[in-house]
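Table 4 source record.
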Amino acid sequence: MSNRSTGVVNQSAFIESLTSLAYRVPALSNQTLDVLTPTVAARVQDITEPNTSVTYQPEIYNASGQLFSPAFIEVPQEAVLRGQSPSNDEQSAVQSRTTGIQVVRVVFLLHNSSILFLSNETSSVVISANVEGTRVEGLTNYVNTTYNNEPSRAGFSQNDSSVSAQFVNQTCVFWNFTIDDWSTEGCCLVPDTDPPQCRCNHLTNFALLVSIYDVSAHVSLRIVTYVCASLSIISLLATAGILLASSEIRKRIPMKVLIILCVVLAIVYLIFMVGIDNRMNEPGCIASAILLHYFLLSAWCWMAVYANVLYMALVKVFATFQEHTFKQACLFAFGVPALIVALNAGITDATKPASVASSVCEEGINRATSSPFAEAFLAENMCWIKGYSLYFSFLLPVGVILLYNIVVFVLVIKSITARRTLLQSKVKHLPIAMTTGATLGLVWILAFFMMLANDPVYLTIMSWIFSIASATQGILIFSLTCLRKGDVRNSWIPVLCEFVQSCNRSQPAHNKEPRRTLPTLQTSDGSALPM
C-alpha cells in the first residue's frame, strides 16, 4: 500500500473515531456538552423530545485568536426521529431501560480546515452532523448549512480595479468515506444566497468548495477586442472578395488557397467574437467550442497547404500543383480537422463521468442540469476545450504543422539564395506565406497563454497584445495581397477610382463648385499669361 493510501486510511479512521468517541460520552444531565479546541469545535446533544429541528452555530478561534462563527447547520426533525428506531447501541439501550425515555444523541463537529480530508480540493471549514445508531439519508426535509466565512456569491463579480472580473464557482459537497474524496451526491447550492447556503438529503461531513477564475472585464479592452476582430474579419473578407472578382487571379492555385484561408480565418474570428464568452448557455457553448476547434485546425491545415504550394513552386521547380492535387489539399485541410474534432468529441463522450449532478438547487436535490459531456469537454471560464482534449487534439497537431511550415520556409529560403533566376511571380508569394504563418502562430499562442493567466496585470497586457495582433493579421494579409501585389492591385484600384469618379459626376449641379477662370494678359507674340 502506498504512503498516500495509508494516510487516507489513517485519517479517515481518525475522522470516524471522533464521532465514535462522542457517542461514548456518558448521559448528559443538562442535555448538551460543548467542546472547543484550537482546531475543532464539538457539540454532543441528547434529545428526549424530538419535536423540532436541531441547530448548531459553533464558534471557533480565527488566526488572530478571536472567536467567530464560520458556519451554521440545521438538522430537520425528520432526521432526529430516525434516531428513535430500535438501536443496537448498548449505551442507548441501558439509558432507555433506566429512564424509560429513549434518548436521541446528535453529534456536531466543526473542523477549521480540511487538512484531515485528503483531496486535491480544499475547504476553509468542514461541519458535520450525525445521529447515533442510524445512518440518515434520503431525507425529504433537507439539512441546511450556511457558510458565514464565504460572503461571496456564486457567479461573476467585478473587482474594484475593473481590470478583471472573477467567476466564483461554489459547490456543496460531503466527504464520501467509500471513495475517500468529496462528492456532490444529494447536495446542492441554494441560488442567490449571501452568505452561501447548502442543502443535503443526508447527514455526514459537509463542506463548500470554492473555485475562483479571473476573466477579462475591462470595458475599453473588450471594445478594442471586438473592434480589432471586426477589422480582421473585414480585411480578410475584402481580400477574398477582391481575389474572387478577377477570373484570371482566382484561377491560380496559390490564390485559391489564400481565398479559402481568408474565409476560414474570418469564420474563426466571428465564432470567437460571438461564442467564446457564452459559458452560461451550455448547448451554445459546446457548439462554439467544437466549431472554433474545427476552423482553427482547418486554418492551420490551409497554412500547411500554402507552404506546400510554395515548396512545389520554389524548390521543386519542375513540379506543378495540378487541379486534382488541389482537390486532395481540400480533402486534407477540411477532412483531417473534422476527423480530429470527431475523434476528440467521441473519446470525451466515451470517457465522461456517468452522471454529473447539478450543483444548484432547483425543485429537488441535484436535478441533472449539467451535462457530463460539458463537464469533461469545456473549460471553466470560456467556450473552449480543456485538458487532454486541448493537448492532444489541438496543440499537438498545431505543433506538427508549425514545425512542418518552419522546415518548408527554411528550404524555400535556401533555394532562393542558391538560385538567383527564380521568377519574381513565384518569389512574391513568400512574404504573404511567412507573414500569415507568423501572425497566425503569434495570435493563437497568445490566446493559449491568456488561458493560463491568473495575475490581473499579466492578463490585461496579454489581452491588449492579443487584440492588436488579431487585427494586424487580417490587415497584413490585405496589405501584402491587395496592395503590394501589382496584378491584384491593378484589378481593383482602377475600378474603385472609376466608381468614385462616377459618384462625383452624379452629384447635383448646385453641389459642384463653379470653375474659376483666371484673368490673362496678352503678350506681344500673341500668347496669354495668367495673372
